[in-house]
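Researcher: Please predict.
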Amino acid sequence: MKLSELQRKDIVSVKDGKKIGRIVDVEFDPSNGYMIKFIIERAHFMRNLFATTEEITIKFTQIKKMGEDVILIDIN
């Protein structure tokens, strides 16, 4: 799967079904080349006055399911 294909998918929380945002970048482990994190741009309604950044990181281990249009994640 290409990064451009991942970037078209919505990132959704499995806990409440809310859209978290979309992938803007990927971080790799330099020692083995595996993906370890997605950099997510927050959805507009997820941003608030207290947020210090418009981006969050999601570890690859937090991904529960990758569908055709959506990536389901479990964030604590």
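Model: The radius of gyration is 12 Å.
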